[in-house]
Amino acid sequence: GDSVTQMEGPVTLSEEAFLTINCTYTATGYPSLFWYVQYPGEGLQLLLKATKADDKGSNKGFEATYRKETTSFHLEKGSVQVSDSAVYFCALGGPTNAGKSTFGDGTTLTVKP
Amino acid sequence: NAGVTQTPKFQVLKTGQSMTLQCAQDMNHNSMYWYRQDPGMGLRLIYYSASEGTTDKGEVPNGYNVSRLNKREFSLRLESAAPSQTSVYFCASRAGTSGSNEQFFGPGTRLTVL
Question: Do A99 and B99 touch (CB under 8 A)?
């Protein structure tokens, strides 16, 4: 079945540091890939997505590129802020699984001033 | 436009009690989902509904039942709560039935079973 493996956390960075959170996946067919963010006490919200190989999703300074050859969708940001402290989830979804999504376990990011 | 709403926000139950978690969306979405979130375990799918009138089991359905009351509402019922059901519960919805579309999540219900 489908699966998503995320870099284990927690991750602690200083403000303005470079961020990478690794995500690799196993899936049949050609899934869409997502990064969701969960701020403390809230539900998940979409951060960015990519629907086909070599697509780059971007939002709020975050980027991730759909790499089919390495089955990866790593999240990056050049300069993190304290307000980026949250839990980040990598997920995949495809048209053949009744609309269900598969989520990674989440990576907790803490950014210190 | 409220998106996905959930009630209650917090609940404490005693072992053996029953309760229903309510979820509603105002985006005219076809698909709705119930997840539970436990520390270090990400999100696990309990039940989902691809359209009004249909429901299917997810990864961890035991101890739960669901009702897709209409297109807007999807409720989750715990018939006899157990401490293992202490968790944060999220409802989500999605346009259409394709997993290529993003999901929209509610704010969650934090449930403690004593």
Answer: yes
